[in-house]
Here is the input.
Amino acid sequence: MGRRDKSYSLSLHDQAYKTLTGMQAFGESKKEAVKNGTDRDKIFSANTYKTYWKHTKYFLDWMKNNHPEITTLKKAKPFVREWLQARTEQTDKNGNHLSAWTIQTEAKALSKLYGIQPDDPDYFTPPKRNREDIKRSRSTTQRDRHFSKTNNDELIKFCKGTGLRRSELSKLKPEHLMPIDKVERALDMYETKVKEDPSSYNLRVLDALKDTKMFEGTKYFLYVQGKGGRIRFSPIIGENEQEIVERIIGTPKNEKVWQYVNSNADIHGYRAEYATAIYKLHARKLEDIPYDRVNKGTGKKFQSDVYTCRKDESGKKLDKKAMLVASKALGHNRICVVADNYIRGL
Here is the structure.
């Protein structure tokens, strides 16, 4: 008698859990995986995994309520588009639709679960995400009313001067402070080290150390291992630099600099202010950026170092080099992320 396929004895919930946990690749280099073509079946960030699993469970609950006869993930796949479409039409008691951000996240979660690529006919195209749709970090919300800026003044200054994510703040320890002389010694050490051991980790540290050259005049950096294990050295900036450094130095060794981070703090908003400040420090006047390329179609010269924003910021122009500096400080590699989500009020 043939061996029975045990996958059919697992619930949809267990099948999905097994699939997603099997993709965990926390701490691995996403950049290397993309280069090797092995990134499609991997999840590089613990936070991304938690988010994908949360939204996958919403889909599984919907399947249980609407299609209880379906018992395998394979048979549930044709219902993905139906569920996502239903989510776009769903409204709350006030008649508000789910945000485009939520729908896009859910589309990505299910695409990861089923290995659906953007060029696949089954790929669901979610509503477009526009900057004006952001409710958090742009106006006063109910949540903001429970957050005292006076009582959290030190936290706010710290965030605006370091640009750390909430998860990075909660892990920060005094040994992560890197004065510029320590950074320079580490750079020399890793340049020698990678010759003897060109491991992925050593190469990533070296690249991050080289990026510190962008932040000329910076006295202090923070060693950060952020989303997906990505390493960076974030510059400490602004008028509260010394206060921030003293807070870190004054923390007992091996203890966290922030034992508690107020859940109502607008961390993304502070990161945006940090990114905008970094950009302003390094941005050139647009008229000073040279016209260094020629458009093959029109024959006219253009500025390859000038970025033209799209969507709701359409027409606004930014200095690409300054955008890259801000992107590196935040732990991103794509300048469009900084333009679309962080740089404000210019």
About this structure: The chain has three domains: 6-129, 148-265, 267-346.
